[in-house]
Design goal:
The protein is an alpha/beta fold. It has ten helices and 14 strands. One of its GO terms (molecular function) is serine-type peptidase activity.
């Protein structure tokens, strides 16, 4: 994977806010545009280990981002990161605080309950850049459906910055998108149809997207570029979801369908050669829309940060695909 701007690996360090309790003395070169700070919220599943959030704060500071952790981010109620009221209050506080970026600590499950109670116009009007993955797809797509505003599908604090190590490319791509530096995301593909198109980029976690069908939170995107990923979903279940999107008329209206990674499933002997490539082959047979595989995105270590709701370009050549991110993002 390559980008048209070279990721700088010496980032300005900032002191973490009080929430982390550590100072950092990294000062390398200065960026043209400050990255700004990040406010961490937990709108979905409970954080299992608070230390991972503290570590994520340190790591984000090393990447040049000050952090503040919402006061309810570590709350626990059943499997959720606090009650519905607590999680909604965290989103409301995120809109009013100073940092320009709001990141989910983790995915899991929990946003579905909250969608009707979120003030989507206030979210859009806040101008904050929201980023998360997995269950956060519900937030990304609801915001797009309700307001047309752009948000981001990418890293979460715990999974990407709170583990043993941080993936350099994931961190670099996140920083570049947040600073408006990334023009083109190029990635290798083993299987891509020829395409050269522009459209609204949308999608995310496939199962979460499917849960929005028939609700006011499902975007009605025509001529879009749909990207998808999932975890622990057998290829036949992925195919069943794609069949619904096809039979609902959604896939036929897109300019391209881009597959991220589908991970952590186990094939059985009776699958007899039926696997994800077989699903892609089937899809091409029923939907005459260009299909591209290999997008660095999903429940994987190296992931791009993608602007959901933004008009982008997509083009392929032999063994490569290029996602053209408009430079005038903000």
């Amino acid at each position: 994977m390559s980008t048209s701007t070279h990721p700088a690996h010496g980032h300005d360090g900032h002191d973490c806010d009080d929430d982390c309790g550590h100072d950092h003395g990294h000062s390398h070169h200065h960026h043209a545009k400050p990255a700004g700070g990040i406010y961490l919220i937990s709108p979905s599943s409970a954080v299992r280990d608070p230390d991972t959030v503290a570590l994520a704060c340190e790591r984000l500071a090393q990447e040049g981002f000050k952090t503040t952790v919402d006061r309810a981010a570590l709350a626990v109620h059943q499997r959720f990161a606090g009650t519905e009221k607590q999680r909604l209050a965290g989103i409301t506080r995120a809109l009013k605080q100073k940092h320009p970026i709001v990141m989910a600590t983790r995915g899991g499950y929990g946003l579905s309950r909250l969608l009707p109670q979120i003030d989507w116009r206030a979210v859009a009007d806040s101008g904050k850049r929201f980023v998360g993955l997995s269950d956060f797809t519900a937030f990304n797509l609801a915001l797009l459906a309700q307001t047309g505003a752009v948000s981001y599908s990418g890293p979460t604090a715990v999974a990407d910055f709170g583990g043993k190590t941080v993936d350099d490319l994931t961190a670099a791509l996140f920083g570049e998108i947040m600073r408006g530096e990334l023009e083109i995301l190029s990635f290798e593909t083993q299987d891509a149809d020829p395409v050269d198109a522009r459209g609204v980029l949308w999608g995310g976690n496939l199962a979460t997207l499917m849960s929005l069908m028939g609700t006011p939170y499902m975007p009605k995107v025509r001529g879009g570029i749909l990207f998808i990923e999932d975890v622990a979903e057998h290829p036949y279940r992925v195919e069943r979801m794609l069949a619904q999107l096809w039979q609902a008329g959604v896939l036929q209206r897109q300019k391209a369908i881009v597959f991220g990674h589908f991970t952590d499933y186990r094939l059985a002997p009776h699958d007899a050669g039926y696997d994800m490539p077989a699903v892609v082959k089937w899809l091409r047979g029923v939907v005459k829309v260009p299909v591209i595989t290999g997008l660095p995105y999903g429940h994987i270590r190296t992931k791009a940060t993608l602007p959901v709701g933004q008009k982008v370009g997509i083009a392929t050549e032999a063994g490569m695909a290029h996602l053209v991110i408009d430079e005038h993002q903000h």
